[in-house]
Amino acid sequence: MQKIRQNLYLKKVMRVCGILIGLAMISISVSMCFEPHAIAAGGATGIAILVQEVLQVPLSVTLLVFNVAMLILTLIFLDKVSAAKITFGSIVLPIFLALTPNTMIIKNALLSDIIGSIIFGFGLSIIYRLGSSSGGTTVPPMILNKYFHIRNANSLFVIDGIVCLGNIFVSGLEEFFLAILSVGISTIVMNYVQTGLDKKLVVYIMSEHHLEAIRQQLNDQLNAGSTVFDVRGGHSNDEKEMLMLVAETQDYGTILNTIFAIDPNAFILADSVAEVHNGSF
After folding, report:
1. How far is CA 58 from CA 97, 136, 158, in A?
2. Distance of alpha carbon 245 from alpha carbon 84, whole angstroms
3. Which phi and psi angles does 155 have, rounded to 5°?
């Protein structure tokens, strides 16, 4: 029992450390990559950059005020669970921004934008994977989804677009295009990290008379586990068998060559999967 408690405590500590690392990465990207070039790349941090450019209010102050307001809205319109999820990040991120120096580490605006977007995307994806949130502009989409059934992604896209448009009036057209580029890069990085860095390939195979030979040959060549399903044809209504194989993406060519060498008429359906847990490879 004591060991179980220690493991749970260790997991909690590791989770908090992971969230802190993610928040630190966001803070670095904003303070050292975006803010020195006045690039407001969406979100609450983008709003803070716009406010600083116009009113000279520090990023941390604007972000703290905005996050507290979003936290209050969460308590009013959502629930305590959602509020608990965003509280830590909403408070800690402004503190990190206050502690991180606004230093231009990359003079080229485009390069700074790209690197900052990658760091930002990694940081935010770490936070999301650990079940937390940095608060900010993620709150309004949650409220709109609850009461008006508007998809979170759609409303968040509109909010980020409005923030990016603010660059035109505050910083200039060049910063606007850099902000749009930043949102795109960060989204790609987040999607890639959140759905897994080690992607696999799932292949479904059907053969009229050679499925067992295909299974055996693939197992001998790739040493990859497979599963056989009992299926029924949608047109013929006949009972059939289908082989499912999970393999590395670089093995796809070998898989195709092996299957077609045994049965040129085999039906093959392939797709990528984000993550695979356990099993044998």
Report:
1. 9, 16, 25
2. 41
3. -70, -35
Domains of the chain: 2-194 (no CATH), 200-273 (3.30.70.120)
Chain centroid, CA 162 distance in Å: 22
pTM: 0.76
Q: pLDDT for 86-106, tens place per residue?
A: 888 999 999 999 999 988 999
- How is residue 182 written in tokens? 């930043």
Token duo for residue 172: 């200039």
Residues 109, 25 contacting (CB under 8 angstroms): no
- With a CB cutoff of 8 Å and minimum separation 6, the contacts of 135 are 44, 67, 70, 71, 86, 87, 89, 90, 93
> Could you tell me which of 120, 117, 113 has the C-alpha nearest to residue 97?
120
pLDDT value of position 54: 94
